[in-house]
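User: quick one, sequence for these tokens?
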């Protein structure tokens, strides 16, 4: 990265905004291609003759727009277009990812047993205090973290769920092995929050960055609740599409 770029300091346009517009134009022209890593903040700051804080503000703005993607410990990259993620009766991560010519993967992060709270008991239609399995899973598309999800299932119904999921990396395949050949989404509730430090580390974003939250309940063909999930998604990488 060579050559000094002159800024119009008397134009009434914030310096960070001018830098963000320059980055946009460089991306549009193909100088920085999709998936490529940007120069460091220090290199960009030197080119414009500004401090790194100003550059960081410009990058943060473009990250919020989904144009850039900051991967913790790796740098800042030009983001691909967000992946469409339909929310409907048959929401399947692997099918959604594969259908967009990407490679899906899933990885178990942690698991535990816990008693059903009143909320979980209501969602899973079991008595309060019922023994549940809780799993934390990371879902990836083309090696890019997309979703970290916490799921709860009734232990007596799915006693080997954790071990089976570790082998398959697929909720659908694991449920099939447990005798649930099909399931559908009963409901989804969409909100947003700031990423906690643990989630941020796995999703390769900064703590406090916004994440989409989708809480859902899946039921078997008889309408019996199978699984409650609370998924946190990176908005610059996923675009929710609500089926109607």
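Assistant:
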């Amino acid at each position: 990265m060579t050559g000094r770029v002159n800024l119009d300091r008397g134009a009434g346009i914030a310096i960070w905004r001018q830098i963000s517009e320059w980055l946009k134009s460089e991306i549009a022209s193909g100088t920085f291609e999709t998936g490529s890593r940007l120069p460091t903040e220090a290199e960009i700051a030197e080119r414009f003759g500004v401090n790194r804080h100003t550059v960081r503000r410009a990058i943060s703005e473009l990250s919020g727009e989904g144009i850039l993607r900051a991967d913790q410990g790796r740098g800042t990259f030009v983001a691909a277009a967000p992946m469409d993620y339909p929310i409907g009766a048959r929401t399947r991560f692997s099918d959604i990812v594969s259908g967009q010519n990407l490679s899906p993967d899933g990885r178990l992060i942690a698991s535990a047993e816990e008693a059903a709270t009143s909320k979980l008991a209501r969602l899973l239609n079991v008595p309060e205090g019922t023994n549940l399995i809780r799993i934390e899973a990371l879902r990836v598309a083309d090696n890019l973290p997309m979703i970290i999800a916490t799921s709860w299932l009734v232990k007596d119904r799915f006693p080997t769920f954790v071990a089976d999921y570790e082998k398959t990396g697929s909720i659908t395949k694991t449920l099939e092995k447990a005798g649930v050949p099909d399931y559908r989404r009963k409901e989804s509730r969409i909100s947003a929050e700031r990423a906690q430090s643990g989630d941020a580390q796995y999703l390769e974003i900064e703590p406090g960055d916004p994440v989409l939250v989708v809480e859902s309940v899946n039921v078997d063909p008889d309408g019996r609740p199978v699984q409650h999930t609370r998924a946190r998604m990176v908005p610059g990488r996923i675009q929710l599409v609500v089926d109607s």
